[in-house]
Task: structure prediction
Amino acid sequence: MNPTEKCFTVGFIYQLESFSFDMIAERLQFFLRLLLGAVFIFSAISKLLGVGLFEIAIVDQGLAATREQAAYPARLMIAFELFLGAALFFPFHLKRIILPLAIVTLVAFTLLQGYQMTLGEQTHDCGCFGALLPMSSAESLAKNVVLLGLSLWLFKITREEKRQVILPSILAVASIAAVFLLAPVRRNYDETFAKYTQFKKASRVDLTSGDKLVAVFNAECEHCQEAARELGALAAKSANFPPIYVLMFSETDTAISAFAEKTNTDYPYHLISADDFFNLIGASPPRLYWLQDGKVKARWDEEFAKNILSAFNMEATAGLP
Result:
């Protein structure tokens, strides 16, 4: 092989290797963009489906004092995640704007979770993925660290810098508009039940969303125990039975355990004070509320099974107590 042929061969091999490396890097970059974009979009959608729970999560983490204060920040955060996820699907301003925003966001989430864990404020559900994928503080921290590492790697291998202002601007405006149209800020729910957000055996609960039954029980009340058994039997025989949450008054934990054993039920419950208990019942316990998007649709003090079957257009089932 003469020097000219040798030089040509070496150059060709070098170009081939260079092309192969660039192609692999480009495909890796595209895959990471899709992965991170999908995660941000999934995070936004999961929060959007239960925006009330996200408001409650913000309050629980001490970032707002009330749900009213958390309402706008919650929606803006969802819109921001939706924008980031959508923007990562396009090769515009990646290294200049989009990836730095994603990295700063993940750093902030990581520091927040780490700080809360340092203070011992670990939660069973951080609210990162709404009710679709509950995650503890430790799981959320690990997830954020992994995503942060992938974002930094993507930033490092991203070379192409395409600039186009119109599309990112449209995505930002569309994200904000979509979130506030699909989940407008609500002011019309009953404040009586909005404050009850933490239930044992169910963690975070939003009583201002959807159809829910809220029972007010005294753990030592025989009529309450009878009602709990009746509701439990009805729920067991009805596939579309709405969820039941209990506002329980009890002076001891032993009474609550005994209540569950006697009634053969395992309802999520929130302990309430004597004042709240007497404000929520009628002449005597128990009382059952039907809430529809936070408003009291109906309240019943007797014939619970009959009223529920009628209210929810459910057929009566043989064998009910």
Observations:
- DSSP finds eleven helices and seven strands in the chain.
